[in-house]
Amino acid sequence: MTAVTPQPHAPHAVLGSGPAGTALARELVRRGHSVRLVDRRGEGPAVEGVERFAADVSTADGARAAVAGASVVYHCVNVAYHLQVEVMPRVQEAVLAAVEETGARLVVLDTLYPYGETGGAVMTEDSPWQATSRKGRMRAELDERYLAAHRAGRVRVVLGRSADFVGPGVLNSSLGATVFPGALTGGEVVGFGDIDLPHSYTGIQDVAAGLATLGERPEGDGRVWHLPTAPAVSTREIHAMIEKRVGRPLKVVLLTRPRPFGPFDERFMAEYEEMFYQHTEPQIVDSGAFERFFGVSPTPLAETLDATVTWYEQWLARG
């Protein structure tokens, strides 16, 4: 099929309205783009300048409708953890076919899972993909298909990898709703694994800004980039930084193995067990290549924590 060239002012289509997709939609509007934010329902709070759109992008027809007329498509879709191995390949197949038809560029939000256990080595874009977990192997296979599609000239694609999210709107993260509500109310705060090991966290605004930059800068296409990520510190040090901001000591509950806690139920934790190595060895992300190439720097961790505490204060006040 002959590709259709998107118009200069065609919208940027963001697939997935979770914390990353929503933050990205706002960032793209801030940069002057027309934005379509896609999820299965097309519902949710109004975001200024953003068109909400309902489509199931795991289907060919849904993906085609979601990306119609878009110049850049951002794949920020995620699904319930226990469904990822089954559903994410279907989403990839449908989205790749849709963007191949339209000629849009594809920006994929990616994880560190393909690297697998590193023994604490610093992760760069040149680190080997040696995942042994089901979800890690699945992610590595998807990524190779994306890059193969680019090499074959089918789709212009670029991948942005992020460490664990932290920031406003981030709930289901190891530094999300299991930490900040308890910190602000005097309740329990979870710590996964060995909290004295260095662990990288990527601010959600840096995820958004990084993906938007990849969407605007096609000279970065055809490869994996690490999105801007502040230098790694230990989770215990982050807890201390949060203590200063909330004015009370944290009541930390250490989970040395996966078990249900807060928003992480038994089903999730059973699926997460194979990924728990991320908390028993250092997880250190080097985003220097992105920073040098695109001339950006990650948000300092202190600023991210300031914004996150403020957001959670407001979230708790809303009940």
From TrEMBL:
CDD domains: SDR_a3
GO molecular function, one term: aldehyde dehydrogenase (NAD+) activity
Superkingdom of source: Bacteria
GO cellular component, one term: cytoplasm
Gene3D superfamilies: NAD(P)-binding Rossmann-like Domain
The NAD-dependent epimerase/dehydratase domain, residue ranges: 16-220
PANTHER family, per the entry: NAD(P)-BINDING DOMAIN-CONTAINING PROTEIN-RELATED, PROTEIN YEEZ
Protein name stated in the entry: Epimerase
Native source species: Streptomyces parvulus
